[in-house]
Fold HXXXD-type acyl-transferase family protein.
Amino acid sequence: METIFLSNIDQAVGFPVETVFFFQVPPTKASSTLNICEVVKRAVAEVLLVPYYFMAGRLNFNHGSNRLELVCNNAGVMFVGATSRLALKDLGNLSLPNASFHRFIHRPGLYKSLG
C-alpha cells in the first residue's frame, strides 16, 4: 500500500467531483440496464483504475504532518446503477448544466469530516 502526500495546491483546492452518465437501453431483448452497468463498471475498473491506481485510493488526514494524503489502498470507486421511467429526451440538453441532475447523485457520507 502506497501513500502519496498531496501538494499545497491539492490541499487547498480539494472538492468532490460528482458525475452522472446517461445511457439509453436499446430496445432489443439481449440488452438490459444490468448489462450496461456491468460493461461500464468493467471499463472503469480495467481502463481507468488500473493505469491510474491512485484514483481508487482514499483521502486520509495525517495527524503527524497535519496534511491530507492519498492512501492507495485499491478500495475502488463508488459505482451506482439506476433506472428511470424518464426518456433521455425528457432530461433536456444533456451537454448543459442542469440543476435537476443533482437528484441523480448518490451521496452516502460524502460530506463527513476527514479529521
